[in-house]
Write a structure and sequence with these properties.
Order of helices and strands: HHHHHHHH
Mean pLDDT: 93
Shape: globular
Structural class: mainly alpha
Radius of gyration: 18 Å
Helix content: over 70%
Length: about 200
């Protein structure tokens, strides 16, 4: 099996997991729970579609069941937000749900558009991508994913989902970005590209 099989399966069952939480805690009348299902649930479906149409080759690496279960366990931490939301019957104000939805929508654009650009350009020509969404940010896909998880992670109005996201960024995402920078440094033009671009968040860091 490959890493993507564990990742895709987890993303794919996320809508079912959220529905199960809504059923268990009887949150059918909670608008915030439905909004959360719409955001995190559709993201899971979009991820599976992306994996099939223009998947990331990093997730093609073969892996055994033990590490696959580690992947599943790590991703399950993201279900902390809907659990808190349903278990505590949190109903966020409408203005807060609008902010969360807007952050999520921006994230979907950056994440999926940048991955599509990367896939298309690398099919045509191998090498550095320095145009479009990648012109000023070396990891716009990660930036988009940050906004996506931030969008639905804010809905419960609780610190724990944000702490999970921060841990993922610090201990998994940033090291991956650093390793990618190290790999891309073999290109002669990388030094100039690095000097004019940000690692993660456009115009910030």
């Amino acid at each position: 099996m490959r890493q993507k099989h564990f990742i895709d399966s987890h993303k794919g069952v996320t809508p079912l997991a959220i529905l199960a939480l809504m059923f268990h805690y009887d949150q059918w009348e909670n608008p915030s729970a439905w909004v959360y299902l719409a955001l995190h649930g559709t993201y899971g479906i979009l991820w599976v579609l992306k994996s099939r149409i223009f998947g990331d080759k990093n997730w093609e690496q073969p892996t055994g069941l033990p590490y696959g279960l580690v992947i599943w366990g790590g991703l399950t931490l993201y279900w902390l937000a809907p659990w808190i939301l349903c278990a505590k019957a949190i109903q966020a104000p409408l203005w807060w749900l609008c902010i969360c939805t807007s952050v999520y929508a921006l994230g979907v654009f950056f994440h999926f558009a940048s991955d599509m650009q990367k896939d298309t350009e690398l099919r045509l020509k191998k090498g550095l991508i320095q145009t479009g969404l990648w012109s000023r940010c070396r990891n716009p896909n990660y930036f988009g994913e940050l906004l996506i998880y931030l969008g639905f992670g804010m809905i419960p109005m609780h610190w724990a989902p944000l702490a999970v996201l921060a841990a993922m960024v610090l201990f998994l995402w940033v090291p991956n970005m650093r390793r990618k920078d190290s790999s891309l440094s073999r290109y002669a033009e990388f030094a100039a590209y690095k000097a004019r671009s940000k690692l993660f968040i456009p115009f910030v860091i």
